[in-house]
Design brief:
Elements (H helix, E strand, L loop, with lengths): L1 E2 L3 E7 L5 E7 L7 E4 L2 E4 L1 E7 L8 E7 L5 E4 L6 E7 L7 H9 L4 H9 L6 E7 L4 E5 L4 E3 L8 E2 L7 E4 L7 E3 L30 H12 L8
Parallel strand pairs: 3-13
Antiparallel strand pairs: 1-2, 2-10, 3-9, 4-5, 6-7, 8-9, 10-11, 11-15, 12-14
Helix pairs in contact: 1-2
Length: about 230
């Protein structure tokens, strides 16, 4: 998908779980304050003006934001409760810095440093350089959850389901010159069940990766005509 004079790289979506839903408990239907750890916190109210074709007056959309993120839904039969979305994609990031450093990288170390700044979306990034090295690095900030794995909307008011940090960049899946001699990236699960961090459970089923592994196992070496 890209290269410079020294390195080349390819990308597929990593399918890591980088967002959660929280049920927020507001003081009233105005959503000016919400509960967190037994206290009422002020919500951020953002008024978005939306122009409508054929009308003089704009529509004003009131966006309510808690410390988890923006409110995206009501909760049926509970008017004082709303659903908020917390996502790495909604956080400020240094994506452009990552792309710039990748385009100017001269080797693996520069490449790995650049990947750290590609915080979202989460990507499988494959690597090759003019010296014959190959590699792989999973980009993106993956949250560390205090409780659970984010499979269902969590109670936002208790403080028991917060993100406590992110998986360190150095501990994200990566490899340089793997022993098997190749790298396969097909949106599938790239780590074993013994991997120390929860990265998600929504991977593609891996049939494409299995097919490639089978083909690679049939021949010791492939050339331009294969």
């Amino acid at each position: 998908i890209g290269h410079n004079a020294n390195i080349a790289w390819g990308m597929t979506l990593a399918y890591t779980d980088i967002q959660d839903l929280y049920i927020e408990k507001f003081k009233d239907e105005n959503c000016a304050e919400y509960e967190f750890k037994g206290e009422w916190k002020p919500a951020e109210i953002i008024e978005e003006k939306i122009k409508i074709k054929g009308r003089k007056e704009s529509h004003t959309e009131k966006v309510v934001v808690t410390h988890h993120g923006p409110v995206i839904s009501d909760v049926a039969n509970f008017p004082e409760r709303k659903v908020a979305l917390q996502s790495v994609c909604l956080e400020p990031g240094q994506l452009m810095k990552g792309w710039f450093e990748m385009n100017t990288a001269t080797g693996w170390n520069d490449f790995a440093k650049a990947i750290k700044h590609v915080e979202s979306p989460a990507l499988n990034v494959t690597y090759a350089d003019v010296h014959g090295n190959i590699g792989y690095y999973m980009s993106g900030k993956v949250p560390v959850r205090a409780n659970g794995k984010g499979r269902l909307p969590a109670e936002g008011w208790t403080g028991e389901n917060e993100w406590t940090g992110y998986v360190p960049h150095e501990e994200m899946p990566h490899a340089l010159n793997p022993e098997k001699g190749h790298v396969v990236s097909c949106n599938h699960k790239v780590v074993g069940d013994d991997f120390p961090h929860f990265l998600g459970d929504i991977w593609m089923n891996g049939y494409r990766a299995n097919r490639l592994e089978k083909l690679f196992s049939e021949k010791a070496k492939y050339g331009e005509k294969d």
